[in-house]
Amino acid sequence: MSVLTDFLREYWPHLTALLSLSFSLIVAAQAAMQKNDVRAAIAWVGVILMSPFVGAFLYLVAGINRIRHDQMSTQRSRLVKDYVNSAHPAFGDVGPVSAPQFASLRVLCDQVSRFPLQGGNHVTLLDSGDQTYPAMLRAIDEAHHCIALQSYIFDHDRIGLRFAESLRRAQERGVEIRVLIDAVGARYSHPPILRLLERNGIRADRFMTNPLGLRSAYANLRSHRKILFVDGHLGFMGGMNIRESFMASLAGRRADSDTHFRIEGPLATQLFAVFANDWEFATGERLRIEDWVRVSPLPPAPRVPARCIRSGPDRFMAATHRVLLGALAVAQRHVRIQSPYFLPDQVLIGALNTAARRGIQVDIVIPGRNNLRLVNYAMTAQLAQVLEGGCRVWRCHKNFDHSKLLTIDDAWSYVGSSNLDPRSLRLNFELDMEVYDRALAEQLSQRIDADIEQSERVTLESLNAMPYLKRLRNRIIWLASPYL
């Protein structure tokens, strides 16, 4: 024993170094084999090899995407997909309702979404909280059968309390209710609204549980989806969280803007399918789609083809990214984008610039006043890359607008919860929808054009005129943009 003790005492530094090198090489090899993005692979391999033990530990905790390999999730999603596909037939030729060039985009989205493009949907644009929240509350108050509500943020404020009270009354009427709030978003207000919901007997839970708990490996993955599904046939989705800052009647002249959508028709079933999948992942409870979905009454005209596009760090990784690339490739006249957080990767920047160089007018509207200062700095540092390609960028000077809107040629729309930043495109669970309808696309285009009229155009000259220290600050913050 003394010989072994003496050996360990004399050679422990060498043994520790050997163990660290062996462990780091094994983990680095795993990172090189698993990461498809060469930049991510290089970064992780560097961190692992240059930071003995610590780098390997960080990768094992935060670098492995365990959700992507969730086989149970794949199986339950297939069951939901089969039900949706059998309940409503897929829509045919999209040319007559939008434009001929979108036929190829429809084929792409057939592969990306796994939901069919379905006709017979009535989609209503709702502007900010003063239109959206009363419509949602009215739907909850009129519910007789079931309510499924999902949000990134559900604040414990005046509008949040109205929702909680409407849900309480629905619970007393015997309505089946489930509420799912992201674990990070649930902490935006104190006390969390979940406590009140649970005291009222409402089944509510957090998505991803507590980031400091057993699922710490998922701390950077968030559900950014916003869904309300009522009585088996009515749905709401879009970019709006539940917080009073979006209501002019409560926040006054400082109220922020956003857009949301009321949906009647088969698309509502797709919303529930996404919610049911997330609910089972978070709680383990399986919601039988046959118990929640009802035969849809014929919605009012116009009825348009649409489908959900879900994306996230799972088998739907980069779904929105692929849709955007396909949409930009088929554009022929005009691309309009409105995004509060505009930080596209180099591939998307290349697609935007290619569209502009083909003679397509590309207008990008961003807030003049952003609610996230660091994101605004990073956005400003990157704007030159799209300006040099011929895109037009506008800073809107009205109050902060949280809308995420895209229209192509006044004939196709892509709306929902996704921002054009690394977090939305790779880390968050997002929900968007594509709509093949000229009327909605023109309505959204008019909304974006109205904001452009209140905007200042950003130019390369205006960016270069900024003081050097501010440009340096922006560039430094931009380096951290994948983590903002």
What do these coordinates show?
This protein has 484 residues and is an alpha+beta fold. The chain has helices at 2-34, 38-50, 54-63, 71-87, 102-113, 128-141, 158-172, 193-199, 248-251, 267-283, 289-292, 319-330, 346-357, 373-387, 422-427, 438-453, 460-464, 468-479; strands at 118-127, 146-151, 176-182, 203-207, 227-230, 234-238, 259-264, 304-311, 334-338, 361-367, 392-396, 405-408, 412-416, 430-436, 455-458. α4 packs antiparallel against α10 and α6 packs parallel to α7. The longest helix is centred in the first third of the chain and has 33 residues, at 2-34. It is a multi-pass membrane protein. Its main location: membrane.
What's the N-to-C terminus distance? 54 Å
| Total domains | 3
CATH topology of the largest domain: Endonuclease, Chain A
CATH H-level homologous superfamily name of the largest domain:
Endonuclease Chain A
| SSE-based structural type | alpha+beta
Shape: globular
- What is the number of helices? 18
**Strand fraction:** 15-25%
Radius of gyration: 24 Å
Q: Runs with pLDDT <50, length 5+?
A: 69-76, 211-217
| Major sheet | 15 strands, mixed
CATH class value of the largest domain:
Alpha Beta
The residue-averaged pLDDT reads 88
**What is the count of β-strands?**
15
Second CATH tier, the architecture of the largest domain: 2-Layer Sandwich
Enzyme class: transferase
Transmembrane segments: 41-62
Main location: membrane
Subcellular location: Cell membrane
